[in-house]
Amino acid sequence: MDLGLSPQEQAFETEVREFIARELPGDIREKVRQDRHLDRGDFMRWQQILGRKGWFTGAWPHEFGGHAWTAMQTIIFNRVAGEMHCPELQVFGPAMVGPVLYTFGTPEQKARHLPAIRDSSVWWCQGYSEPGAGSDLASLQTAAENRGDHYLVNGQKIWTSYAHFADWMFCLVRTGREGKRQQGISFLLIDMKTPGIEVQPIRMMDGRHYLNAVFFNDVKVPASNLIGEEGRGWTYAKFLLEHERVENANLRFITQELQKLRRVASQVQGDGRRLADDPSFMAEVSAVEVQFKALEIGLLRMLSDMHAGAPAGPGKSSFIKIRGTEIAQRITELLVQASGPDAIRYQPGPLFGQGEGDLIGPEHALGPVATYLFCRAMTIYGGSTEVQKNIMAKHALGL
Asked: Looking at residue 311, what is its pLDDT?
C-alpha cells in the first residue's frame, strides 16, 4: 500500500527487506510459506535474530532499549514481514507485559525482565481468562492471598496460549472482594517453574496444541512480583488490552494471507481458465483488499495518537480488533474456496513435520483448512466481537 512514504521511511523499508532476506532462516521461511507447524525453537530462533538487531522491541522508547519506531515504521515492518513469510511474533512479552513493566514496574522489575524480553530469551504467556471469566474478565476468581513476603495463589486460567512453552506468566488475580469487582484485582508476574503450577493441553479442531488450562495449587509468588499497587490490576490490564487489540489487527498475517490468496488464484485452474481470471471471485478478493487498506489507515491514525502520548481509547482499539479479525477470517474463507476439494485432505505428517509421508496434492492446499479453523477463534479471543461492539457503542457513540 502506498501511503506516501518519506525518503526516510522508504530507506527503512529497504533495510527491513534486506535484513529479512539475509537473516530469516530458510527452513522457517518455508514452514511459514507452506502453512506448516512451527515449534518453540522456530519462534525463538527468529525472535532472537530480531532481538540482536533491536527489532523485537523496535517500538519501545529509547530509554528502555527500543528504537522508538514511528507508527509508519511499525506498519512497514509488519507488512514486509508478512510479504516475506516471517513467523508471527509472540507478542506477550514485547507488546503486552513489556509496556506494562516499563510504565508501571519498579526499577528492580525493569532491570530483571526488560532485557530478557528485548533479546527474546524468555517466553511470556498471559493469565487472564478463566472458566466463567472470559469476556467478562472482572468476574475472575483466581485468588492471591497476601502472606506478607509472598502471595499464595490458587485457581485456574484457561485458553492460555503457549503456556506449555512459557517461562513466565503475567497474571490477573483477585486480592480483595470489597467494592466493585474491578477494585479487587491485582497484576502478578509468575515464574512458570514455581511448584504448584500444572499446565494441561487443550487440543483444538485444527489439530494443533497452542492453548492450555493452567492450574495453581498453593503457588508461592514473591510479593516483589506485584506490578504497581495491590488492587489496581484492572488499570494495568486495561492499559495492556489496548496494546493487545492493536496486535489483533493481524497486519502481518493479513498481508501474508492476501499474498498467498493471489498466488493460489493464479495457479488454480477451472473450466479452462485460472481462478484469477474469474471476475466474480476476484471481486471478492478486491473487496477484502479495500477493507484492509482502510484498516491500515485506521491503525496508522491510532498508532500515531499513541506515539504522541494519547491513549488509544477503548472505542478505537475495539474497532481495530473487530475489523482486523473479520478481514483475516474472510481471507481464510477465500483461501479454502480457492483451494477447492484438494484442501479437504487432512495431512498431519506434512503439516506437523511428523513422519516421512509425502504431500498429497498441491502444496498450496495443505494448510488453508487448518488456518481457517484456527481463525474461527479470532472473533472470540482478546474480547469477543459482541463485547467490542458494546464497548464502541458506550465509549465512542455514548449509547
From this structure: 65
In terms of Cα–Cα distance, which of 255, 249, 355 is closest to 306?
249
pLDDT mean across residues, the chain: 90
pTM greater than the 0.85 cutoff: yes
Cβ-proximal residues to 202 (8 Å cutoff; 6+ apart), any chain? 158, 159, 209, 211, 212, 213
User: Is residue 16 helix, strand or coil?
Assistant: helix
How many alpha carbons lie under 13 Å from residue 276 in its C-beta half-sphere? 10
The answer for residues whose C-beta is within 8 angstroms of residue 282's C-beta and 6 or more apart is 265, 276
Domains of the chain: 7-89 (no CATH), 124-232 (2.40.110.10), 248-395 (1.20.140.10)
- Closest listed residue to residue 281, CA positions, set 330, 337, 341, 342: 337
pLDDT in the model for residue 365:
81
For residue 71, what is the enclosing H or E element?
helix 71-83
For the segment 103-131, the average pLDDT, to the nearest whole number, is 97
